[in-house]
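Can't attach files on this board, so I'm pasting raw text. These are the components:
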Amino acid sequence: DTGVSQDPRHKITKRGQNVTFRCDPISEHNRLYWYRQTLGQGPEFLTYFQNEAQLEKSRLLSDRFSAERPKGSFSTLEIQRTEQGDSAMYLCASSLSTGRTEAFFGQGTRLTVV
Amino acid sequence: QKEVEQNSGPLSVPEGAIASLNCTYSDRGSQSFFWYRQYSGKSPELIMSIYSNGDKEDGRFTAQLNKASQYVSLLIRDSQPSDSATYLCAVFLGSNYKLTFGKGTLLTVNP
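---
Top answer:
Structure tokens for the assembled complex are below.
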């Protein structure tokens, strides 16, 4: 296992289109996080899962954002009707929920909305 | 008070000096604390974790935790130009253990 994998690495889309990102966590990790990061800011929490359960979703998110983690394995993050303000790096991280709970990040998906 | 707060920086130190990065957090019940390094255009990379009060050393890095003061710090000894990056403090907050990040401190090590 080579770590957290995200796909695609880059995405350019037109305003109003829908986009979907995928994250494959480290295989034994049961916790999976999504963050959004813009220039000069720290990662902003979007949502996280423990196994297949979505435990928390940021109140900052509009209804245009949705995430799933079917069967507690990979996860998808969908943004509907994209806006220019959605342009950012979308980061996924995974961890264990007990013991050594360090979270490890994937390489991120850079979204540009034109 | 912000949930996780860091010196905004930027912090500039000469090569070979000690760089000191600070972080405070709002949740007195937090138990797990992490430092990440992030190079420009890259994703965060975990460099230290600390769970107990006191110091934890790993090579040139030392993390310090004071739960009573809700304060965690990172010291980088013998700073190198390759240490130039943004350093992010992260804390598990709340009953759901949401991993929350500070804004980060940009460190520049000058040769």
